[in-house]
Design goal:
This protein has about 230 residues and is an all-alpha fold. It contains eleven helices and no strands. It has one domain. The longest helix has 24 residues.
């Protein structure tokens, strides 16, 4: 019974829209109406500030970290730890507080990895940092880190099919959630991290068609010319 209650708690905790709450408390704004319109740490970083953005990132990581750690404390097996982690990720990506919508779950997935397979978590995070520094694309870093999960599970946790399955499922899910970013990368319209002195929202921005974005920008430019 306690295991199932913990599973429900993992989903509920994961579904809390931390970015929306922090922006409201910090600056009194609805972050969905600014920047990329996403409630993730990247958009909060740009719209509200680096301290608020970092706080959102850490809390989103914590949302994924505590369920498997609580499961460990209860003596649950690996299957339950993975289930608790997936519940947190699904809660973040499909939050009932946001009409069962959400982010891409990168930070929350990282937290789950720290709790379930820490060696893979730290390695994937290091890879993410390196790719961001080299390419300035948060989306590319997130996609490559996600793709590395299953192979890293085989390296660090051989003979543990549950962890391999989790790495494969979580990685594919994260890549799928970046389908809009992949389209923009192929079209050459994806923004880089820190472009023009600001923080862009590559990995957390909503899936808006590139043509629509261009039309919106053209409309704004026309409006400026008439002022």
């Amino acid at each position: 019974m306690m295991s199932w209650l913990l599973l429900a708690g993992a989903y509920f905790g994961g579904s809390l829209p931390i970015g929306l709450l922090v922006a409201k408390l910090w600056k009194g704004i609805d972050v969905r109406e600014h920047g990329s319109g996403n409630i993730g740490a990247t958009n909060v970083y740009r719209v509200v500030g680096p301290i608020a953005g970092t706080l959102v990132f850490l809390l989103d990581v914590l949302k994924g970290f505590w369920p498997p750690m609580a499961g460990r404390a209860m003596g649950l097996n690996a299957e339950w730890l993975v289930a608790l982690g997936m519940a947190a990720i699904l809660g973040h990506n499909f939050s009932p507080f946001l009409g069962f919508k959400g982010g891409k779950g990168i930070a929350t997935s990282l937290g789950v990895l720290f709790g379930v397979a820490p060696k893979v978590g730290f390695t994937a995070f290091a890879l993410w940092i390196v790719v961001v520094l080299v390419t300035r694309y948060v989306s590319v870093a997130s996609i490559l880190a996600a793709a590395s999960l299953a192979p890293l599970m085989l390296v660090f946790y051989p003979g543990q099919p549950t962890l391999f399955g989790f790495g494969l499922a979580a990685g594919l899910f994260a890549i799928y959630k970046h389908k809009g970013n992949i389209k923009r990368l192929m079209a050459g319209t994806e923004n880089r991290f820190g472009k023009s002195g600001k923080t862009s929202d590559e990995s957390e921005q909503p899936d808006i068609d590139s043509k629509q974005r261009a039309e919106e920008q053209e409309s704004k430019s026309a409006g400026s010319d008439n002022d």
